[in-house]
Amino acid sequence: METSKSSEQLITEDQLKAWSGYSQTGKLLDFLRANGILYFRGRGGSVMTTIQAVNAPLLGGGDNNVQTWE
Length: 70
Description:
Number of strands: 3
Strand content: 5-15%
């Protein structure tokens, strides 16, 4: 299977859980909101985000009034 550059920039729920240390989806969502990381819910409710969304708060591009896409 060929991967596109855009899919390489997508971070899945499993990757987010491994990175954050949270195994429960609810706790993961709390973590993402608290840290200003935008995310969206995929088919079946899975949580996804992008590398850019994770980096934005670290680089000063985060927003304390976090909006999430669900």
